[in-house]
Design goal:
The chain is of the alpha/beta class. It folds into two domains: about 5-240, Aspartate Aminotransferase, domain 2 (3-Layer(aba) Sandwich); about 245-380, Aspartate Aminotransferase, domain 1 (Alpha-Beta Complex), CATH 3.90.1150.10. It has helices spanning about 5-10, 50-60, 75-80, 100-110, 155-160, 175-180, 215-225, 230-240, 245-265, 285-290, 305-315, 360-380, and strands at about 65-70, 90-95, 115-120, 135-140, 165-170, 190, 205-210, 270-275, 295-300, 320, 330, 350-355. Strand 2 (about 90-95), helix 4 and strand 3 (about 115-120) form a beta-alpha-beta unit. Helix 11 (about 305-315) crosses helix 12 (about 360-380). It is globular, with a radius of gyration of 21 Å. The chain starts with a helix and ends with a helix. The chain binds pyridoxal-5'-phosphate. Pyridoxal-5'-phosphate binds near residues 73, 74, 141 and 170.
């Protein structure tokens, strides 16, 4: 079945007890057993829950995965996957990794003896030169947050495997509608379902998928043992969001492309980062491995002051962290989502503005930015 059909039906048979067409929210912590150990497949909701099962099956199918494991947040997924690594082992991450992941690696795991290195996206063409016997995981985001860098997933998988490492792809920005890393050789895909998969700014969640049965078994074990599990209502919200993922992503891409093309022509905008622009260094790779170019656009304002002023002036683009929802958001990564990277060698430029382009009318969004940018130009 096609993606759009699986997004609506996979793992979501009508409820066997009542025929309810929508998967119920099984808001229960435990399940009555007929005799010791004799039950209907569920014994305790940290271990398993029917609403979570439906979500895991649906998202796994969308990522072309045999196994899907849901978490309480994107960082819950990241922290659990990082438990595949032991102290003393090395993880090589894309340099402009999400700030919260950098905070975790540098301030939580590194002091415990885990080794992390950060490689700029442009150097991934020579990834093999940066790997050694001790590298357990290569960790990429593509497009990356917030610089929208692109990495060739297939080439990264080949280099990682040749060195005996796993390739993990954070697919939050692209979503499985636009890009399916496991089909390109990645070993594990992770998501913040808080973003496009949920799609409505009303839930925090995470997800990981794999086709490797050994990794899957370990991740299921870690899911119940570390306990970063999502509640049934949160699973239900993501399940509902995913039903319209394909439609929403089409409109996100259409609007982001219109905004990026327009921004390129605006005086006072120094540089626009959008993989859909032919001038983007990763455009050709993105065109090959993605279905379309996504809903995120970043650009450099004239100065940090102009960036900070601009984000208070837009009316439709709301000043807020997060991304991937129906409504448009604007932020300054260096002072908000990526503040944790302030002292890192790859800190987000202080004049960078990140847009999460929503599914409102493209004309209204451009008009909103136009008025705000003009007001900043008058001010400065
Ligand atoms: N990965 C990426 C690319 C993100 O942008 C985020 C959050 O912004 C996360 C992971 C973490 O997700 P969460 O906020 O759901 O913990």
């Amino acid at each position: 079945m096609d993606f759009e059909t699986r997004a609506i039906h996979e793992g979501q048979e009508p409820d066997p007890a009542t025929g309810a067409i929508v998967t119920p929210i099984y808001q229960t912590s435990t399940y009555v057993q007929e005799a010791v150990g004799v039950h209907k497949g569920y014994d305790y909701s940290r271990v398993n829950n029917p609403t979570r099962t439906a979500l895991q099956q649906c998202l796994a199918s969308l990522e072309s995965a045999e196994h899907g494991i849901a978490f309480s947040s994107g960082l819950g997924a990241v922290t659990t996957v990082m438990h595949l690594v032991d102290p003393g082992q090395r993880v090589l991450l894309i340099a402009d990794v999400y700030g919260g992941v950098y905070r975790m690696t540098s301030q939580v795991y590194e002091p415990k003896g885990y080794l992390f290195d950060y490689l700029p996206a442009a150097e991934f063409a020579n990834l093999a030169d940066h790997l050694d016997d001790n590298t357990r995981i290569v960790w990429i985001e593509t497009p990356s947050n917030p610089m929208l860098n692109i990495v060739d997933i297939q080439a990264a998988a080949d280099a990682a495997h040749a060195a005996g490492a796993l390739l993990v792809v954070d697919n939050t920005f692209a979503t499985p509608y636009l890009q399916r890393p496991l089909e390109l050789g990645a070993d594990i895909v992770v998501h913040s379902t808080t973003k496009y998969l949920g799609g409505h700014s009303d839930v925090i969640g995470g997800f990981a998928a794999t086709n490797d049965p050994t990794i899957a078994e370990r991740l299921y074990f870690l899911q119940k043992s570390l306990g970063a599990v999502p509640g049934p209502f949160d699973c239900w919200l993501v399940l509902r969001g995913v039903k319209t993922l394909a439609l929403r992503m089409k409109k996100h891409c259409e609007n982001a492309s219109a905004v990026a093309l327009w921004l390129q022509r605006v005086l006072g905008v120094e540089h626009v980062f959008y993989p859909g622009l032919p001038s983007h260094p990763g455009h050709a790779i993105a065109a090959r491995q993605m279905h379309d170019f996504g809903g995120m656009v970043s650009f450099l304002a004239g100065s940090p002051e102009e960036a900070a002023e601009l984000v208070t002036r837009t009316k439709l683009f709301q000043l807020a962290e997060s991304l991937g929802s129906v409504e448009s958001l604007i932020e300054v990564p260096a002072r908000m989502t990526h503040a944790a990277t302030a002292t890192a060698p790859f800190a987000a430029p202080p004049n960078l503005v990140r847009l999460s382009v929503g599914i409102e009318s493209a004309e209204d969004l451009v008009a909103d930015l136009s008025v705000a940018l003009a007001a900043v130009a008058v001010q400065t």
